[in-house]
Design a protein that fits this description.
The chain is of the alpha+beta class. It contains 11 helices and 32 strands. Strand 21 and strand 22 form a beta hairpin.
């Protein structure tokens, strides 16, 4: 297990009140309180931009400077907070379908509106995303973004609308492009950054994004004060105005410090605390309207103030809810959980990681599983679960000298430890003489080969690498083969199309935005025959059509048998339904926020096979827990490389519909075919 390193964290706090003492008045006083709270926790480097200092240029420059600031340690935790106005409006960028952009409002934008002088454009989400991408590439990916501002069209946290300034948003697109085009051009692509792509994986994701909320970008986790359709509120006390979200944030941080978990608290753990405190405050302050915070991003189970993440990496499942002697997990049949699945439950009592119980699944639904604890575990918000073994054993043909190695007691102990199981080895590895999904060879001295039924071959040296390779193979084949369709699911419920993409812009200025649009007709792919595509530098998107009568959540993964990676192509960003009945969803372009795809070949290969797997359900599931990095010789799985936790939302009145469809893909080198 890895222990967290307490790297010196950096915090940037931006807060802007309304002008002349009317409207929004809590951000700047709240910012001072937040700064003092972070300092008391031991954050050594805190910078603030408040009031007149928080101009458009100053905010952008300060964010840009983080990437090259020598006072900030590489890979250090970075916390960025914004309190003030935000506005949400369709942004009609030429060549791109208009999307609901979010704009953070700096001081000089408010001032220009108040004085009715030449307007200063607010800062769009695509600009913030580009700056966060720069920080992630040059300094650290351990970024937590805290936004206390409205995502609704009005953008006001002030109930006194008569005293609020005119919030109509008229963006001068030409001026915006001129100001931010250089930053937009920094949005990275796989073509520009081939080193960031696993050479054996044919589906590569880049970091193009047009949204703070989700864009296939792995640079940050967002904790937002409210949903897109809600106001972020403040209220008056005897001490002055206070923002509901930031007040709860400060109380949650103080609680973490008092509970001695400040160095292990994760975004999802902090979010759960904030949510509970906000609910208590709303109960006391009856004038407050409903306001539901959101937590979004890939790395939601990575500690905020230390690094690396929790030791169980991408297969950790959170949040874990304790309810009446039962443990409720936000995963179910769709994620390969079965009734006899076993989970270890971990928590941080007194700030130390501890396995508090091992429990078997008692009841499982499409997107939820319950375990019977038998007693109150008193779990904290940072608790998580890890499945001990995949429910299905991997059939392995063992050839050459591999059987002798497999029967070695010390090797078996290492294998059991890697799988995190105290059960028999046969629960996850099944030796067979023929028709195995995997063939394992041990060719002395110290040379190993794993060959699977889909043509993938791993060759590596070192006995210590074998357990990790077998673990990844077992998880890969378990999730690839799992279907678990509900009775209401049908093979015709969804249709999937692949579409080639091209740059949408024709002018040199606008091309820098890297916008993409479909080129040519989409090609429907089928589960019964492989979609064949020649290797190239072209980018592709997906179109998914919902042919049924139920609103669906959709999750798309790429399964690569070359290295046993399970890579997310698309995961729902929020609890909002992404694919309503009789509608469509585009992935890789437009406003979906997901990255485009590229199909490549490993060096020297003439043909590769893989699988696009589309899961769907009427209930939101934390399906991101199935993803895993590919095997890489000489490297153990890094903790927390790819967790993606989703908000847990199970409306009981809906019918349960879920299933998955697997589409084979063959990438070939046209030069090797006649």
């Amino acid at each position: 297990m890895s222990s967290s390193r307490r790297l010196p964290a950096y915090a940037l706090i931006i807060a802007i009140n309304d002008l002349n003492g009317v409207g929004l008045q809590a951000p700047e006083p709240d910012a001072i309180k937040l700064s003092k709270t972070l300092a008391s926790m031991g954050v050594p480097y805190i910078e603030m931009l408040t009031g007149p200092a928080a101009t458009r240029q100053a905010i952008i420059q300060k964010l840009a400077d983080i990437a090259d600031n020598r006072r900030i340690v590489d890979d250090a935790p970075i916390i960025i907070y914004f309190g003030g106005h935000a506005r949400r409006q369709l942004l009609a960028v030429p060549g791109v379908v208009p999307y609901p952009a979010e704009f953070l409002v700096p001081y000089d934008t408010l001032l220009s509106e108040f004085r009715r002088t030449s307007p200063v454009p607010p800062i769009p989400d695509v600009t913030i995303s580009a700056l966060l991408g720069r920080i992630a590439r040059r300094k650290s990916k351990h970024i937590t973004l805290l936004l206390d501002c409205c995502h609704a069209g009005s953008g006001s946290r002030d109930d006194d609308v008569d005293n609020a300034i005119d919030l109509a948003l008229e963006v001068d697109l030409d001026k915006l492009i001129e100001l931010d085009k250089d930053l937009w051009s920094e949005l990275p692509s796989d073509i520009d950054n081939p080193s960031e792509t696993n050479s054996s994986s044919r589906v590569a994701q880049n970091n193009r994004t047009s949204s703070l909320r989700y864009g296939g970008i792995t640079s940050h986790v967002l904790i937002a004060s409210c949903r897109e359709d809600q106001l972020s509120q403040e209220y008056r006390t005897s001490y002055g105005c206070q923002a509901l979200f930031t007040t709860a944030l400060i109380e949650a941080l103080i609680e973490c410090k008092e509970d001695n978990v400040i160095w292990t608290v994760t975004p999802i753990g902090l979010f759960e605390r904030i949510k509970m405190i906000m609910e208590d405050m709303q109960h006391r302050e009856r004038a407050l309207r409903p306001q539901h915070p959101q937590c979004e991003g890939y790395y939601k189970d990575r500690p905020i103030f230390s690094t690396p993440a929790r030791p169980h990496g991408s297969h950790a499942i959170a949040p874990v809810v304790e309810r009446g002697g039962r443990i409720i997990l936000p995963v179910g049949l769709l994620a390969g959980i079965e009734r006899h699945s076993v989970f270890d439950i971990y928590d941080y009592p007194q700030g130390r990681l501890k396995q508090v119980d091992r429990l078997r699944v008692h009841h499982v639904l499409d997107s939820e599983a319950s375990l019977v604890a038998g007693h109150n575990l008193d779990l904290g918000p940072d608790a998580y679960a890890v499945m001990c073994t995949p429910p299905t054993a991997l059939p392995v043909e063992m050839v050459v000298d591999f059987p002798a190695l497999y029967n070695d007691k010390s090797f078996q102990a290492s294998l059991v430890n890697t799988f995190g199981s105290h059960g028999p080895l046969g629960h996850f590895i099944s030796p067979v003489r023929s028709k195995g999904k995997l063939s394992a060879s041990y060719m002395r001295p110290d040379q190993f080969e794993l060959r699977n039924v889909h043509g993938g071959v791993l060759r590596f040296r070192g006995i210590s690498q074998v357990p990790d390779a077998l673990y990844k193979a077992a998880m890969f084949f378990h999730h690839l083969g799992q279907t678990a369709p509900s009775p209401l699911a049908s093979t015709n419920m969804i249709s999937v199309f692949v579409v080639q993409l091209a740059e949408a812009y024709q002018t040199d200025v606008l091309r820098e935005v890297n916008a993409l649009a479909p080129r040519g007709q989409p090609t429907q792919i089928h589960p019964t025959r492989a979609y064949t595509v020649p290797v190239s530098d072209e980018l592709f998107g997906l179109q998914i059509l919902n042919n049924g009568a139920y609103n669906l959540y959709v999750y798309v993964f790429y399964f690569d048998p070359n290295d046993y990676s399970i890579t997310p192509i698309y995961l729902p960003a929020t609890s909002d339904i992404p694919l309503p009945a009789a509608s469509g969803l585009v992935i890789g372009y437009g406003s979906s926020g997901a990255a485009p795809l590229s199909f490549t070949l490993a060096n020297g290969a003439h043909e590769d096979k893989g699988f696009i797997k589309v899961y769907y359900s009427t209930f939101l599931s934390q399906l991101g827990s199935i993803q895993q990095d590919g095997f890489e010789e000489g490297r153990k799985s890094r903790p927390g490389d790819s967790p993606h936790h989703l908000p847990h939302h199970l409306p009981p009145q809906l019918p349960s519909v879920s299933g998955s469809i697997t589409y084979p893909v063959t990438v070939f080198d046209p030069r090797s075919r006649h």
